[in-house]
Predict the structure.
Amino acid sequence: MPLDLADPAWSKLPGSYGHSRDIVTWLNEAKIVGRISDERLGDLVNEAAHQGDASLAIYGVVPYLVEFALYADSQAERVRLLTHAGLLCADLRRAALENPDEDFVVTQYNSAKTQGAQMLSTLLVKLSDFSDFQYGIAALAGFLDKWEIARVLETLELFEGKLHHPWFQRPVSPHE
């Protein structure tokens, strides 16, 4: 169960802009409606990790994204929510922020990571789109605290049948 949205502990989980008021409002809206829109999900992710700079708010956000995925109407929605949650975990791990003082928050975050990894791993085998699969694997790595793998996969591109990556000297063909 995620941190109650009225819990004062949210004040100790600031987002990228120094507070968590917007995050709490957006999560509350999503709970009322029963889903989170693409626009709100983008706002939420941006507030929790602006341009990849992680904030402590991720500890509170990830359990909600995993919970929303549990009740999502479609496989695509579950994958979308879990992918964002896993990538936020990777951002948080990479930033090496100290745990918040609230033990309950850390326990719920770790529990959501385990549940998210289990849910996403069962969905990955059903994905046929390269990009969905790529980001899904990156998110799974994030849930498993393997942020380095997540980072490599996030920046990998498939273009004209070849893999491109900033670390590669040249594009790599799968047939090489």
In short: Residues 103-124 form the longest helix (22 residues). The helical segments are 21-33, 38-48, 58-70, 75-95, 103-124, 130-143, 147-154.
